[in-house]
Amino acid sequence: AFIMCADSPAPEIDPWIWRLLVDRDHQGVGVGTFALNCAIERYRAMGFKRVRICWYPAEDDSSGFYKKFGFKETGELWDDEVVAAFDL
Fold first, then answer.
1. Which residues does 87 contact at the CB level (< 8 Å), separation at least 6?
2. In percent, how much of the chain has pLDDT > 90?
3. CA–CA separation, 5 and 39 (whole Å)
4. What radius of gyration do the chain's Cα atoms show?
5. Number of Cβ within a 10 Å radius of residue 54
6. 12, 5, 84, 85: which is closest to 48 by C-alpha?
7. What is 38-61 written as a DSSP string?
8. Distance separating alpha carbons of residues 77 and 88, to the nearest angstrom
9. Given a cut of 90, is residue 12 above it in pLDDT?
10. For labeling, which of 27, 38, 75, 86 is most exposed (least CB within 10 Å)?
């Protein structure tokens, strides 16, 4: 798995999880959930109130995974990608 995060310089600015990639051969066994939990717990410990993520909307996109985790779409777009947030 690979996770790329953009930390924030101040608690009032949301940090971002830019990319979470899990090899197809290792999807569905909890690797992505583990990585996402680690990032979220880190931001919670740092005192942030929410974390944001985005995905490119497509038929087989990752939105189901993130929504099941608790991310909610914000209505914003970032370069044609859907923005979602998770309240810590």
1. 49, 50, 70
2. 86
3. 8
4. 13
5. 22
6. 12
7. HHHHHHHHTT-SEEEEEE---TT-
8. 21
9. no
10. 75
Q: Which two tokens stand for residue 36?
A: 């996402």
Whose tokens are 């993520």? That residue is: 53
* Full-model pTM: 0.88
* Token pair belonging to 49: 């109130």
Residue with tokens 């979602």: 84
Specify the amino acid at residue 71. Answer: F
Question: Which pLDDT tens digit goes with each residue over 37-70?
Answer: 999 999 999 999 999 999 999 988 889 999 999 9
Edge-first strand order for the sheet with 16-21 is: 2-6, 16-21, 50-55, 81-87, 72-78
Q: Which amino acid is at 45?
A: A
